[in-house]
Amino acid sequence: MALVSVVGASGRQGQAQMRQLLAAGYEVRAITRNPDVFKGTEFEGVETRPADLVDESTLAPAFDGSDAIFFNHPMRARRQRGQYAAAVGRAGRAVNVKRMVWNTSSWIPERAGDPHTYGWNTEGINMLWRTGVPATVFGGVLFMDNLLANWARGQIVHEGRFVYPHREHMRANWISLDDVARIMIASLDRPDFEGSWMNIGGPERLGPRDVAAALTEALGREVRYAPSTPEEFGWHLADAFDDGMSAEKRADFAKGIAAFYEYNNESPTRPFEVNIDYQQNRIPMKLERLVDWARRQDWSDSALRPSGG
């Protein structure tokens, strides 16, 4: 039985990956600074080991004995994602893992130009390749599970509003984190995916009103699309993620989010759209529609939902 170590296991992405790895028959090791987070959850019996991305010396001991590594970079470490990916790659190579798989959590540019923060994905991938670890990278463009986070769920459930800064013309291939995990798993025994990257998304290309309509159908009550400007949305996320950030850091965070969505609304590169025919040709898989994903979620206030990645 192959052992996969999941870096960032306590986040939404890490939990989906552990769930799908266990369902597929893999042995799982959670790499997290807070192993107590799994008490009373479905992952309580999973082996945990501590490690700190800032301290590279802690990584190889945490990975020792692993056949593969799933890497989730901290969502707020946008600029440092390449440094962390390279550190994990070096540690993985030191313990002879057969594959490292990284989901960049956003679109990967195909050519030079003005990639905004997406350019850090390209930079990070190149840094990872240079470590020599056998690796695969996926760019998940937009996650359905974001709708369960504290900045979205409350307004959907209690106010009947889907607040988002996408303009009417924008379309996005929303994908569930469980499908992201299943794609990552499918690549593990594929030699053609070693040293390869691919953007991935869900089966439908939805506009913001389509998202609201899917939520309305799934929840059985009206959910309206409430347009937000990128600037308003930046401060909305800063307030939602406020966990002791200084005023200066909050302002910088809000400004970065606003610039990100302003770019997404105006860019001719369409960074939330994915060539699904190409994706399905490489990894054939039944992908979950947004309405079906929403129907199986726990929308109650008591459900555990990490706000971070």
Q: Care to give the gist of this entry?
A:
The chain is α/β, with parallel strands linked by helices and 309 residues long.
Please describe the structure with a list of short key phrases separated by commas or semicolons.
two-stranded parallel ribbon; Rossmann fold; alpha/beta; 11 helices; seven-stranded parallel sheet; 309 residues; single chain
The succession of helices and strands, N to C, reads: EHEEHEHEHEHEHEHEHHHH
Biggest sheet, spatial arrangement of strands = 3-2-1-4-5-6-8
Helix content: 25-40%
The rounded distance between the terminal residues' Cα atoms is 27 Å
* Percent of residues in beta strands: 5-15%
How would you sum up this structure, described in words?
There is one protein chain. The protein is of the alpha/beta class and 309 residues long. It has a domain of 188 residues: NAD(P)-binding Rossmann-like Domain (Rossmann fold). It contains eleven helices and nine strands. The strands form two sheets. The protein has a seven-stranded parallel β-sheet, with helices on both faces. A two-stranded parallel ribbon has the order 7-9. Helix 8 packs across helix 9.
